């Protein structure tokens, strides 16, 4: 993955706490490659979108995402 360092940053940021989907999209919109980074993280199975109750979607790191962080020497939250 060519953009692995940026995907790692996204996964690490999400691992810090539960995040609303809208919050993730807003925080990462400054990056012109945001959608590619987001899609790469989802396609790799590092993050998932679920229901946070009501109509709000939440984003969380998967076990595979935590292993990705650990392999890179990062802590997961």
Shape: globular
The CATH class is identified as Mainly Alpha
- What class do helices, strands and sheet pairing give? alpha+beta
Number of strands: 3
Percent of residues in helical segments? 40-55%
What is the CATH architecture assignment? Orthogonal Bundle
List the domain count as a whole number: 1
- Could you tell me how far the N terminus lies from the C terminus, measured between alpha carbons in angstroms? 23 Å
**Largest sheet composition:** 3 strands, antiparallel
The spatial strand order of the largest sheet comes to: 1-3-2
- In angstroms, what is the radius of gyration? 12 Å
Q: How is the CATH topology named?
A: Arc Repressor Mutant, subunit A
The overall pLDDT, averaged over residues, is: 84
CATH superfamily: Winged helix-like DNA-binding domain superfamily/Winged helix DNA-binding domain
Number of DSSP helical runs = 4
H-E order: HEHHEEH
Proportion of residues in extended strands = 15-25%
The unreliable regions are: none
SSE inventory with pairings:
Blueprint: H1 4-15, E1 19-20, H2 21-27, H3 34-43, E2 47-51, E3 57-61, H4 63-71
Antiparallel strand pairs: 1-3, 2-3
Helix pairs in contact: 1-3, 1-4
């Amino acid at each position: 993955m060519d953009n692995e360092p940026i995907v790692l940053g996204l996964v690490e940021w999400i691992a810090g706490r539960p995040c609303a989907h809208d919050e993730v999209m807003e925080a990462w919109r400054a990056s012109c490659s945001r959608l590619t980074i987001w899609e790469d993280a989802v396609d790799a199975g590092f993050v998932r979108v679920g229901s946070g109750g009501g109509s709000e979607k939440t984003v969380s790191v998967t076990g595979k995402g935590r292993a990705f962080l650990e392999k890179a020497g990062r802590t997961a939250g």
